[in-house]
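User: Okay, second chain of the day. Same drill as before: sequence in, structure tokens out.
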Amino acid sequence: MSGGLYLALRQSIGMVISLGGVLLLTRLIGPEKYGLYAATFGIFWYLQTVCQLGIEIYLVRHEGEEKLQIYHQGFTLLLLLGIGGMGISLLSIPLIQSWVRLPGFSAIAQVMFLGLPLVLLGQVPAARLERNLDYRKVALIELANQIIFYLIALPLAFQGWGVWAPVMGWWFQQVQSTGLLYWASRYSPRLYWNPSLVKQMLAYSLGFSTSIWIWYARSLVNPLLVGRFAGAEAVGFVAIAIRLVEVLGFVKAATWRLAIATLAKFQGDQYRLLNAVTEGMGLQILALGPLLVAFAWVAPYLMPLLFGDQWSPVIAIFPFIALGNLTNALFNMHSSTLYVLQRNWEVTIFHLVHVTLFVGATALLVPHLGLVGYGWAEIVALLSYGVIHLYLVRSVGNPVYDMPGLWWAALAAALFVHPLGWWTSLGLVAVICLPATHCKLREYVKSIRG
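Assistant: Same drill. Structure tokens below.
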């Protein structure tokens, strides 16, 4: 509870800093420069995720006493992976440049890809802090990193550095983060090699990581496909829309992490597990949906005022991305449950179907429809949730979709009031007036008070 409080406070303060910082940064450097940074960062972030090979997961979750040899082995592995990944990524820059066709990408990518070993080596002390539940230090370091990014990026943007302003802010952030993590964890790294321990690490982490890698391939769609077919400005518009949805949906991300620990207690009781999934669906929809709908309604008036008229295309793409996130919230507990039941490969297949639909639809629609084609690709990818539903039914049973599904449908329609008309909000008004909705809300309030 103490660690959770620190993380919650960090998230709240971080949201304010992030929104204010992004607002100023995007107004200063514009959609095209921000889109170039977002495209390069998206590719780097996925590269970092793959090169970690899930080693940080093993360092946090391995059984038994804490031994320095385990951290030394993790440090050595990540050092080798960082150097190897950096070399391969630098050699692949000309190939990526020829694909994305974004002017200036190569220079930005070279500078960021050089930081891969540094970023990976920071995972070892971070894992040690998390394993010891020292979330106070983790929260303070994350907040300090966020602050240093904008302290560097914003003055440089004022001076006309353009896309290099966030790049320099990112580099200072990574150096500070790694230094603070090693200092706070009091970990002194050493080179160490134990073949049996290496095998144990990789066997433990790769199964879970493969599923995550496939899902995170979504992050490559914007830089690689939108960037190629619609240009850097379009990448910037999509990146800001995604950022806004993520900020508004921080509850969903937090509850997903908590769900695995909570559902693990019910895995031997199918009835309670199924009830937990049903209740979780409703809570996630209610926690996320109203925030997304409220922003969708005020976006046409708020976006030009805060970000400027040049960012108005974000208004058109936001409802589609919000709908994708809202639907994911409805099925979030499904994947959590399957992970708890160690059905990792079933979640992996769902992720593969989802990403395949998303990539295929984006490649087909963006060249013809432009930016909105990315939004329609989000709609096409929703078909994949039928796969995760079938796997849950086969493993546990059929959850009750009555109220969560009704709330989802009403909120989903209300996201599109501006492109389709205010009549799309009538369903939401009807659902709010239902006695069953009032009854369910009273139950949730009573449970929270308890």
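The chain has two domains: 1-207, 249-450.

User: Thanks, on to the next one.
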